[in-house]
Amino acid sequence: MKSLGFVLLCSVFTAKTWGQAAVESAVGAGASTGAAAGARGAGQAVGGVFGALNKTLEQAPKTEAAPASTAVAPSAAKATPAKAVSIATKPIDPAQVTVGMERDEVLSRFGEPATRTTQIRRAQMLDTFWYKTESKDELIISLTDGKVVSTVLASQRKRAPVASVRR
């Protein structure tokens, strides 16, 4: 009698869990069908992009690459790049940078800095430019939202003390 109760109990649990498994299987099959329908359109879109790129490349003028052992033609040696980035090669005078200057004015007067960082903090854009100075030092220019807020020489900047670890 005990074994009959065990068989009956197992049958009831199996019947209840089979219904749940059938529902989950149907939901999974439906989700995968929907995903496959969306992926079909994505494949066509990607194919269209590459087709347009191929058409553009075919319309570009054909040039033959010169072998590596051939000398450069004189006309090619005179060619200049369309626009090179102007990096400040000559040292700048720190007195020429004033608080309140715009970012574009700093870049147009002094060129690209030797180093620059940009970050966003508390919804404000913070830029830091490093320029070489005539005294072999670096001028650190801090900008907030496109305006100079401070300038300091790297040698005069106060640095936070480094914590020492005692053992």
Brief summary:
This protein is α+β, with helices and mostly antiparallel strands and 167 residues long.
Tally of separate domains: 2
Helix-strand sequence: HHHEEEE
How is the largest sheet built, in terms of strand order?
A: 1-2-3-4
CA-to-CA gap between the ends? 74 Å
| Helical residues, percent | 40-55%
Mean pLDDT: 73
- In terms of DSSP E residues, the strand content is 15-25%
Q: What is the fold-level CATH name, i.e. the topology of the largest domain?
A: Beta-lactamase Inhibitory Protein, Chain:B, domain 1
Note poorly predicted spans.
none
CATH architecture of the largest domain: 2-Layer Sandwich
Major pleated sheet: 4 strands, antiparallel
How many beta strands in the DSSP annotation? 4
What's the CATH class of the largest domain, please?
Answer: Alpha Beta
What can you tell me about this protein's structure?
The protein has a four-stranded antiparallel sheet, with no helix packed on it. A hairpin with a 2-residue loop joins strand 3 and strand 4. With 167 residues, the protein is an alpha+beta fold. The model has no long low-confidence stretch (mean pLDDT 73). It is 42% helix and 18% strand. It has two domains: 1-60; 94-156, Beta-lactamase Inhibitory Protein, Chain:B, domain 1 (2-Layer Sandwich).
Which helices and strands, and how do they pair?
Blueprint: H1 2-59, H2 74-77, H3 103-110, E1 115-121, E2 124-132, E3 138-144, E4 147-153
Antiparallel strand pairs: 1-2, 2-3, 3-4
